Amino acid sequence: MGYKIVVSNQLLEKRVLGIIRVQTVKDFPCLVQALQRGGVHCVEITMTTPGALRAIEETSGKLNDVLMGVGTVLDAATARQAILAGAQFLVTPTVELDVIEMAHRYGKVVIVGAMTPTEILTAWEAGADMVKVFPANVLGPGYLRAVHGPLPEIPLVPTGGVTAQTAGEFIRAGAAMVCAGGWLVDKQAVANERYEVLTERARQLVDAVSKAREEITR
After folding, report:
1. Residues with catalytic roles
2. Cα(27)–Cα(30) distance, rounded to whole angstroms?
């Protein structure tokens, strides 16, 4: 089984992706470990975080059972830099065809951001491994369910404003996995180094997703 398939399968198996968007990366390993303790084993650090690539480079491969990717990737040059720094997958906020091409060149998973059905299908046909439906908090679970109906073969990943209270609804609506950022990695908790808050929220998020999956498979 190829490395790319392994990473894709792990993401879909875990079903939760934590987004880290902070002002400094000095505590990046602590943030990742806090989320890991709560059951979130897949994390993305956004390119809007100063020093994001350095954080990935210094941490990638050093934490067991953690998949680390880079988000807010807007062009092929950034995609290549992220891959060379050790990113195991790439995430875009919009349909970036050159990023998809670069991910394919290096055999990396790419999750492409889209909103409309046309954008979602365009991203999928261009080779996206999953499609990030953004902004999920504005569109809602009902929208995801409506899109999933005619496009059931596309793994949809709602992103934007997802919390433990809404994650289950998105899973029941057909989401392949969910991404959570601002609610999960609470800025105040990070500023006060209260990493236990992140661990507890991660646990709540994972529990909500697991419960929803159980309801679907009954």
Report:
1. 44, 132
2. 5
CATH number of 3-210: 3.20.20.70
Pairwise CA distance, residues 3 & 26, whole Å: 30
Cα–Cα–Cα angle for 199, 182, 178, rounded to 5 degrees:
75
Length of the chain: 218
Query: In this predicted model, what pLDDT tens digit does every residue of 88-109 receive, in sequence order?
Result: 999 999 999 999 999 999 999 9
Strands 130-133 and 89-91: unpaired
62 pLDDT tier (thresholds 50, 70, 90): confident
Amino acid 66 reads V
Q: Is the peptide bond before 135 cis (omega within 30 degrees of 0)?
A: yes
Q: Is the pTM of this model over 0.85?
A: yes
Helix (H) or strand (E) holding 204: helix 195-217
* Pure H helices in 73-163: 76-85, 97-105, 117-125, 136-148
Check residue 16 and report its DSSP letter: E
